[in-house]
Design a protein that fits this description.
By secondary structure, the protein is of the alpha/beta class. It has 16 helices and 12 strands.
């Protein structure tokens, strides 16, 4: 009887957690209330709200989100926050928030970010730190826009660039092979005709498309929940990702057309043929050290696609390429990110900051 009593006492907390989690997922507000790292609005404007995490005591780092993704990608919750990690490591992280995309934004293309939004953010952050050069980190298309910005404006005060899950060679992405095959014969029009009519790629389609990239996760979710019903931390991580995907905004029409025409079909990053506002942007003009991190199970930016960055940035003083476990989002906020992606970023920022100090 004593053994049975001990067993029951051992199970009781687990059963209690399972019951609370089951209620939260089924009838309540989830297993955990959303928690964000405290931040301060530094400046605001159309699709360019700039937030700072913590005070301005550390070296500045600018986090650049992709299009069609909220700025929360860098701050999902405690333990899944690159912003909080950087702040605790002595840096001062900032993030640009693009807000929502509406029909009125249909004419926004990459040039709006490359020539205006991102250069303004970089200069503002630099000025807040007495002219210090800024380390810029971009996930997915955020990395693409960062590379294009630095290439188009080599005079910007950029200390270093980190890209996370950023594809370069689009011929190496199996998931879009059917689109490239069709596009050989039809061009980008079948991909963009509907989006032209509605002014962009609507949020529900973006959200559904992202879920399609992880079909196993979606199909096995009921089993995953049942297996981990007692594990609040695991379910909270799952819930944070679900909430993140549910908040995804849409793409502006022009930007989506440029993605289809110049990146997917034209493979412009690899071929140095990205044309914005009437001029060709050469990645060879980028003059900052670069770290690129690719995920072992990333279907959106497979390693074979991302590693091409080592051959196109011929003007960079150094290009470091690393691989890490994880999916596309897992690279930034997955359970292994702290000991892989974040650790690579830590060592890279330490190295490049030391180089900047030595140069001065």
């Amino acid at each position: 009887m004593r053994d049975i009593s001990g067993l029951i006492a051992t199970w009781r907390p687990t059963l209690g957690d399972a019951a609370r989690n089951a209620w939260g997922l089924s009838f309540g507000d989830g297993v955990e209330q959303p928690q964000r790292t405290p931040s301060t609005l530094i400046s605001s404007g159309p699709h360019r709200d700039l937030y700072r995490f913590g005070d301005a005591a550390g070296a500045p780092v600018l986090l650049v989100p992709p299009l069609a993704v909220t700025a929360h990608c860098y701050d999902l919750r405690p333990g899944q926050s690159l912003a909080a990690h950087l702040s605790s490591g002595g840096h001062t992280p900032y993030v640009v928030d693009y807000g929502t995309m509406r029909y009125a934004d249909r004419d926004l293309g990459f040039e709006a970010w490359v020539d205006d939004i991102l250069p303004e953010a970089i200069r503002t952050v630099s000025e807040l730190h007495d002219g210090a050069a800024v380390s810029v980190i971009g996930w997915s298309l955020g990395g693409t826009m960062t590379l294009l910005t630095a290439s188009a404006h080599p005079e910007l005060p950029i200390a270093s660039i980190t890209t996370i899950g950023t594809p370069i060679d689009y011929t190496k992405i199996p998931a879009i092979s059917p689109l490239r095959l069709i596009g050989k014969f039809t061009g980008e029009r079948p991909l963009t005709t509907v989006t032209d009519l509605v002014g962009g790629l609507p949020a529900p389609i973006v959200q559904a498309s992202y879920r399609v990239t992880a079909p196993q996760r979606e199909l096995l979710k009921p089993w995953f929940i049942a297996k981990n019903l007692h594990n609040t931390e695991t379910l909270a991580r799952m819930e944070s990702i679900d909430n993140f995907m549910a908040e995804m905004p849409g793409y502006p029409g022009k930007a989506f057309q440029q993605i289809c025409e110049q990146l997917i079909l034209g493979n412009g990053l690899l071929n140095d043929s990205v044309t914005l506002a009437g001029r060709n942007i050469k990645l060879a003009n980028l003059n900052a050290p670069v770290l690129s991190i690719s995920g072992a199970s990333d279907v959106i930016a497979p390693i074979a696609s991302a590693v091409a960055i080592t051959s196109v940035l011929t003007g960079s003083p150094s290009v470091r390429f690393e691989t890490a476990p994880g999916s596309h989002l897992g690279l930034v906020a997955g359970p292994t990110a702290k000991n892989s992606t974040w650790a690579y970023i830590d060592s890279f920022l330490e190295e490049t900051t030391r180089q900047v100090v030595s140069a001065n």
